[in-house]
Known about the structure:
By secondary structure, the chain is mainly beta. The chain has helices spanning about 10-20, 85-90, 180-185, 185-195; strands at about 5, 20, 40-50, 50-60, 70, 70-75, 80, 95-100, 105-115, 120-130, 135-145, 150-155, 170, 175, 200-205, 210. The strands form three sheets. Strands 1, 9, 10, 15 and 16 form a five-stranded antiparallel sheet that branches. The longest helix is centred in the first third of the chain and has 8 residues, at about 10-20.
Amino acid sequence: MCNRARFDGEPETITERFGANLLAEKPMDNRFDPKELRPFGRAYVVRNEAGCRGLDVMEWDVLAGQAKQAGRKVAQTNVRTLHLPQWRSLVSDPANRCLIPLTEFCEWAREPTDLGDGKKPIKGEMWFAVTDQPVFAVAGFWRQVGDQRYFAMVTCDANALVAPIHPKAMITILRREDHDRWLTGSFDDVLALQRPYSADKMTVRGPVFPTRVRA
Protein backbone atom coordinates (compact mmCIF):
# COMPACT_ATOMS: atom_id res chain seq x y z
CA MET A 1 0.00 0.00 0.00
CA CYS A 2 1.43 3.35 -1.03
CA ASN A 3 1.24 5.69 1.96
CA ARG A 4 4.14 7.95 1.13
CA ALA A 5 4.94 9.88 -2.03
CA ARG A 6 6.62 13.01 -3.33
CA PHE A 7 6.17 15.76 -5.86
CA ASP A 8 9.50 17.55 -6.26
CA GLY A 9 8.46 20.60 -8.20
CA GLU A 10 6.43 23.78 -8.28
CA PRO A 11 2.76 24.33 -9.22
CA GLU A 12 3.94 25.80 -12.52
CA THR A 13 5.48 22.43 -13.39
CA ILE A 14 2.04 20.84 -13.18
CA THR A 15 0.12 23.60 -14.94
CA GLU A 16 2.54 23.46 -17.87
CA ARG A 17 2.69 19.66 -18.11
CA PHE A 18 -1.03 19.02 -17.64
CA GLY A 19 -2.42 22.17 -19.20
CA ALA A 20 -4.26 23.01 -15.97
CA ASN A 21 -5.37 26.33 -14.56
CA LEU A 22 -5.06 27.06 -10.85
CA LEU A 23 -8.29 26.34 -8.93
CA ALA A 24 -6.87 27.01 -5.47
CA GLU A 25 -4.12 29.11 -4.00
CA LYS A 26 -1.07 27.33 -2.65
CA PRO A 27 -1.69 26.79 1.10
CA MET A 28 0.74 28.72 3.26
CA ASP A 29 0.84 26.50 6.35
CA ASN A 30 3.02 23.72 7.73
CA ARG A 31 0.50 20.96 6.92
CA PHE A 32 1.04 21.39 3.19
CA ASP A 33 4.22 19.73 1.96
CA PRO A 34 3.83 18.11 -1.47
CA LYS A 35 7.48 17.06 -1.35
CA GLU A 36 6.62 14.66 1.49
CA LEU A 37 3.06 13.39 1.06
CA ARG A 38 1.65 11.19 3.83
CA PRO A 39 -1.89 10.14 4.89
CA PHE A 40 -4.04 13.13 5.89
CA GLY A 41 -1.55 15.40 4.14
CA ARG A 42 -2.52 17.63 1.24
CA ALA A 43 -1.35 17.38 -2.33
CA TYR A 44 -1.77 18.96 -5.74
CA VAL A 45 -4.54 17.24 -7.71
CA VAL A 46 -5.57 17.77 -11.34
CA ARG A 47 -9.29 17.54 -12.10
CA ASN A 48 -11.77 18.80 -14.65
CA GLU A 49 -14.06 21.72 -13.95
CA ALA A 50 -16.42 23.28 -16.47
CA GLY A 51 -14.78 21.29 -19.25
CA CYS A 52 -11.26 22.47 -18.47
CA ARG A 53 -8.41 21.01 -16.46
CA GLY A 54 -7.67 22.66 -13.16
CA LEU A 55 -5.05 22.32 -10.43
CA ASP A 56 -6.57 21.91 -6.97
CA VAL A 57 -5.30 21.05 -3.47
CA MET A 58 -6.93 18.14 -1.60
CA GLU A 59 -6.40 15.98 1.48
CA TRP A 60 -5.19 12.41 1.02
CA ASP A 61 -8.07 10.51 2.65
CA VAL A 62 -11.18 9.96 0.58
CA LEU A 63 -13.24 9.08 3.70
CA ALA A 64 -12.53 12.49 5.22
CA GLY A 65 -11.36 11.18 8.59
CA GLN A 66 -14.43 9.01 9.15
CA ALA A 67 -12.62 5.67 9.30
CA LYS A 68 -11.30 4.37 12.61
CA GLN A 69 -9.22 1.40 13.67
CA ALA A 70 -8.45 0.51 17.27
CA GLY A 71 -10.05 3.76 18.34
CA ARG A 72 -7.96 6.05 16.15
CA LYS A 73 -8.52 7.66 12.78
CA VAL A 74 -7.07 5.94 9.73
CA ALA A 75 -6.85 7.39 6.24
CA GLN A 76 -8.34 5.71 3.16
CA THR A 77 -5.51 6.60 0.81
CA ASN A 78 -5.72 3.79 -1.74
CA VAL A 79 -8.64 1.95 -3.35
CA ARG A 80 -8.53 -1.11 -5.61
CA THR A 81 -11.96 -2.78 -5.60
CA LEU A 82 -13.71 -0.17 -7.72
CA HIS A 83 -16.77 -2.35 -8.34
CA LEU A 84 -17.90 -2.00 -4.69
CA PRO A 85 -20.98 0.25 -4.52
CA GLN A 86 -19.40 3.03 -2.44
CA TRP A 87 -16.51 3.40 -4.89
CA ARG A 88 -18.33 2.68 -8.13
CA SER A 89 -20.84 5.44 -7.42
CA LEU A 90 -17.92 7.89 -7.24
CA VAL A 91 -15.67 6.56 -10.00
CA SER A 92 -18.52 6.11 -12.48
CA ASP A 93 -18.92 9.90 -12.63
CA PRO A 94 -16.03 11.49 -14.55
CA ALA A 95 -16.47 14.64 -12.46
CA ASN A 96 -15.09 12.73 -9.48
CA ARG A 97 -11.94 11.47 -11.19
CA CYS A 98 -8.57 13.11 -10.87
CA LEU A 99 -4.85 12.84 -11.56
CA ILE A 100 -2.27 13.03 -8.78
CA PRO A 101 1.09 14.35 -10.07
CA LEU A 102 4.13 12.71 -8.45
CA THR A 103 7.86 12.35 -9.01
CA GLU A 104 8.36 9.36 -6.66
CA PHE A 105 6.40 6.94 -4.50
CA CYS A 106 7.50 4.68 -1.68
CA GLU A 107 6.91 1.07 -0.69
CA TRP A 108 8.41 -0.48 2.42
CA ALA A 109 10.59 -3.58 2.11
CA ARG A 110 10.12 -5.56 5.31
CA GLU A 111 12.47 -8.31 4.14
CA PRO A 112 15.97 -7.90 2.66
CA THR A 113 15.64 -7.06 -1.03
CA ASP A 114 18.25 -7.29 -3.78
CA LEU A 115 18.07 -4.17 -5.97
CA GLY A 116 20.33 -5.72 -8.60
CA ASP A 117 23.05 -3.12 -8.03
CA GLY A 118 25.70 -5.64 -7.02
CA LYS A 119 25.44 -4.61 -3.37
CA LYS A 120 24.09 -6.49 -0.39
CA PRO A 121 20.28 -6.74 -0.03
CA ILE A 122 18.64 -3.93 1.89
CA LYS A 123 15.35 -3.35 3.67
CA GLY A 124 13.37 -0.25 4.49
CA GLU A 125 11.86 2.42 2.25
CA MET A 126 12.17 1.89 -1.49
CA TRP A 127 11.53 4.82 -3.83
CA PHE A 128 10.15 4.28 -7.32
CA ALA A 129 10.33 6.72 -10.23
CA VAL A 130 9.24 6.62 -13.88
CA THR A 131 12.01 7.04 -16.43
CA ASP A 132 9.89 8.24 -19.36
CA GLN A 133 7.82 10.64 -17.19
CA PRO A 134 9.82 12.68 -14.64
CA VAL A 135 6.42 13.95 -13.43
CA PHE A 136 3.85 11.16 -13.72
CA ALA A 137 0.12 11.01 -13.01
CA VAL A 138 -1.54 8.50 -10.71
CA ALA A 139 -5.18 7.62 -11.37
CA GLY A 140 -7.41 8.81 -8.55
CA PHE A 141 -10.86 9.99 -7.57
CA TRP A 142 -12.14 12.58 -5.15
CA ARG A 143 -15.18 13.70 -3.22
CA GLN A 144 -16.31 16.82 -1.44
CA VAL A 145 -17.40 16.85 2.20
CA GLY A 146 -18.61 20.23 3.37
CA ASP A 147 -16.25 22.80 1.90
CA GLN A 148 -13.27 20.41 1.80
CA ARG A 149 -12.13 18.05 -0.95
CA TYR A 150 -10.51 14.64 -0.41
CA PHE A 151 -8.90 12.09 -2.75
CA ALA A 152 -7.62 8.53 -3.00
CA MET A 153 -5.19 6.84 -5.36
CA VAL A 154 -6.34 3.83 -7.39
CA THR A 155 -4.17 0.71 -7.14
CA CYS A 156 -3.71 -2.29 -9.42
CA ASP A 157 -1.60 -5.45 -9.73
CA ALA A 158 2.09 -4.96 -8.96
CA ASN A 159 4.54 -5.11 -11.86
CA ALA A 160 7.80 -7.09 -11.87
CA LEU A 161 9.77 -4.24 -10.27
CA VAL A 162 7.36 -3.49 -7.42
CA ALA A 163 6.23 -7.08 -6.70
CA PRO A 164 9.41 -8.24 -4.87
CA ILE A 165 8.90 -5.38 -2.40
CA HIS A 166 5.10 -5.10 -2.33
CA PRO A 167 3.50 -8.07 -4.12
CA LYS A 168 -0.14 -7.20 -3.44
CA ALA A 169 -0.50 -3.99 -5.42
CA MET A 170 0.98 -0.77 -6.77
CA ILE A 171 -0.49 2.62 -7.60
CA THR A 172 -2.00 2.98 -11.07
CA ILE A 173 0.41 5.12 -13.08
CA LEU A 174 -1.08 6.44 -16.30
CA ARG A 175 0.58 6.95 -19.64
CA ARG A 176 0.40 10.56 -20.73
CA GLU A 177 -1.90 9.68 -23.64
CA ASP A 178 -4.37 8.09 -21.19
CA HIS A 179 -4.95 11.17 -19.03
CA ASP A 180 -8.02 12.33 -20.96
CA ARG A 181 -9.46 8.83 -21.08
CA TRP A 182 -9.22 8.54 -17.29
CA LEU A 183 -10.79 11.95 -16.68
CA THR A 184 -13.62 11.67 -19.19
CA GLY A 185 -14.13 8.01 -20.17
CA SER A 186 -16.68 5.41 -19.14
CA PHE A 187 -16.48 3.09 -16.14
CA ASP A 188 -15.23 0.38 -18.52
CA ASP A 189 -12.43 2.76 -19.54
CA VAL A 190 -11.52 3.14 -15.88
CA LEU A 191 -11.26 -0.61 -15.41
CA ALA A 192 -9.18 -0.96 -18.58
CA LEU A 193 -6.70 1.64 -17.31
CA GLN A 194 -6.39 0.02 -13.88
CA ARG A 195 -3.24 -1.85 -14.85
CA PRO A 196 0.44 -1.90 -13.84
CA TYR A 197 2.90 0.44 -15.51
CA SER A 198 5.72 -1.12 -17.53
CA ALA A 199 8.48 -2.24 -15.18
CA ASP A 200 11.15 -1.48 -17.78
CA LYS A 201 10.14 2.19 -17.64
CA MET A 202 10.63 2.47 -13.88
CA THR A 203 13.55 2.59 -11.45
CA VAL A 204 13.88 1.85 -7.74
CA ARG A 205 16.36 3.11 -5.19
CA GLY A 206 16.80 2.38 -1.53
CA PRO A 207 16.82 4.82 1.40
CA VAL A 208 19.52 7.47 1.81
CA PHE A 209 20.89 5.50 4.74
CA PRO A 210 19.91 1.91 3.85
CA THR A 211 19.95 -1.00 6.22
CA ARG A 212 22.31 -3.47 4.57
CA VAL A 213 22.01 -7.10 5.49
CA ARG A 214 25.20 -8.75 6.62
CA ALA A 215 26.36 -11.84 4.80
